[in-house]
Amino acid sequence: MNDLASKWIADRSALPGMIGCGVSEPGGNCLCQSANELICPSGKLEQILHQIVGAKTRLAADGVSPLWQTWVFAHGKIRSATRPDGWIMVAVVNEEPAGAKTLDTLTTEFLALAPGN
Q1: Rounded to whole angstroms, how far apart are CA atoms 73 and 84?
Q2: Most buried among 26, 59, 72, 77, using CB within 10 Å?
Q3: What is the band of 77 on the pLDDT scale with cuts at 50, 70, 90?
Q4: Residue 24, φ and ψ in degrees, nearest 5
Q5: Rounded CA separation 31/58 (Å)
Q6: Is the pLDDT of residue 105 over 80?
Q7: 58 φψ region: left (φ > 0), alpha (ψ -120 to 50), beta (else)
Q8: Cβ-proximal residues to 85 (8 Å cutoff; 6+ apart), any chain
C-alpha cells in the first residue's frame, strides 16, 4: 500500500460521522482505519472491504460495474466507490446527518483523485 493511500485514510478517519474507512488497491492489498475500534474494529472493516471487492468482481463479470453503492442500515451507512484504475474505497458512517455529508464528500474526493494516485 503506498504512502499516499495511507495518508489519505488517516486524514479522513476523523471526519464527522465517520466510523471507519479503507481502500483496496487493484492487486488486492488493503488498508483500513477505524475511527472507533469499539463500534467497528479495523479487522472487521477489512473483512467488509474484502467482501465488497469480491461482490464488485462478481458483478463486473456479469457486466454490471456501478461507480458507487450505498447500503443503509438502522444506525449507519456503508458506501463503496470504484475508481477507473481499480482502487476501491469503503466508508462506514453513523446515521447522523454529518455522516451522510461525509459520505458524499469522501466519495467525490476519492473518485476525483488522479489515476494511479
Answers
A1: 28
A2: 77
A3: very high
A4: -125, 130
A5: 22
A6: yes
A7: alpha
A8: 26, 115, 116
Q: What is the DSSP string of 28-67?
A: S-EEEEES-TTTS-HHHHHHHHHHHHHHHHHHHHTT---S
Half-sphere exposure of 108 (CA within 13 A, CB side): 6
SS3 state at 2: coil
Mean of the per-residue pLDDT values of the chain: 86
Residue reference for cell 474494529:
41
Strand partners, 32: 22
- Grid coordinates belonging to 96: 447522523
Domains and CATH numbers, the chain: 3-112 (3.30.450.30)
